[in-house]
Design brief:
single chain, mainly alpha, globular
Length: about 290
């Protein structure tokens, strides 16, 4: 009976997360649409986004490719060289549509109907609560995740190098503090959470940069995991970041075979656990 109750709670939390993500994306889109003089800031947003994506995604890929060369992984791709991967970015397009919907709504919404000032904070607290329930019911304990030596190694390399890329990002732009650079790089693909936390801490512009950076990771992962897996399984897993535990798990399984699943789950669980802690911690210095 307790098991069934816990399972039901987890199921409800996951459903709630799905709906909450759409709401959050619409709200972030609305807040972005309400930014003063946004047209003149679009060039900066594009610059920040492109540099952040290259640094956070590129650094992780390179580091994990080197790691695989130095310490070859026992898992090998089971994908046929001629097989066409089953790639679907429908979910990512839906999320972009939600963001655009919020932006459009903001252009026509009367001032009295604008979201209250603490809307993103409330949504963030609710999101973290549901994430906690979902992780607890995932069936993977912290002990199990940490006992997978290879998964732990990939996680530590991925997190460490990605955070260093955040420091480099901060050094490249005078208006970005080191703490902010670290916060922006800590999303690891968790766009709904990073977008909410960064919007709450740094405003809608930076929230949008963080969201699109992490959403871009998911899209690139869905497209390129099959190809990357042929050259480096660790890099393929790291490419998806936190999404390796959900959205990109089917693609990883298809490209790497069932034998890679324990490694993927270990990496995904650890990064899912670390990401919100790091984001909230670094953003608290804003």
């Amino acid at each position: 009976m307790p098991y069934q109750t816990a399972k039901k709670s987890t199921h409800l939390a996951e459903r709630g997360l799905n709906y909450l993500v759409f709401i959050i994306l619409v709200v972030i889109g609305m807040e972005l649409g309400l930014v003063d003089d946004l047209q003149h800031k679009l060039a900066n947003i594009a610059l920040y986004l492109s540099v952040l994506m290259v640094l956070t995604i590129g650094s992780g890929l390179m580091a994990l490719v080197v790691f695989d060369r130095m310490s070859p992984c026992q898992y090998r791709s089971q994908q046929s060289p001629t097989a066409k991967p089953n790639v679907s970015i429908h979910g990512s397009l839906t999320q972009i549509l939600c963001l655009a919907t919020g932006f459009i709504i903001a252009q026509f919404l009367p001032t009295t109907w604008h979201p209250p000032e603490k809307t993103t904070t409330v949504l963030l607290m609710l999101l973290l609560f549901l994430v906690g329930i979902s992780l607890k019911g995932s069936g993977v304990s912290l002990k199990q995740a940490l006992l997978n030596k290879r998964g732990l190694q990939i996680s530590l390399i991925f997190v460490g190098v990605t955070l260093l890329s955040g420091v480099l990002f901060a050094l490249l732009f005078d208006d970005v503090s080191v703490a902010q650079g670290l916060a922006l790089s800590s999303g690891f693909g968790w766009y709904s959470l990073s977008g909410t936390i960064m919007t709450d801490a740094y405003g809608a512009v930076w929230g949008s940069v963080a969201l699109l950076n992490d959403l871009g990771r998911e899209v690139l992962a869905l497209i390129f995991i099959p190809w990357v897996m042929r050259h480096s399984s660790s890099a393929a897993i790291g490419l998806g970041g936190v999404t390796s535990l959900d959205f990109t798990l089917p693609t990883l399984t298809q490209a790497g075979g069932a034998s890679i699943i324990p490694l993927v789950i270990s990496f995904g669980f650890i990064t899912n656990l670390i990401s919100p802690i790091l984001m909230v911690f670094f953003a608290s210095f804003s």
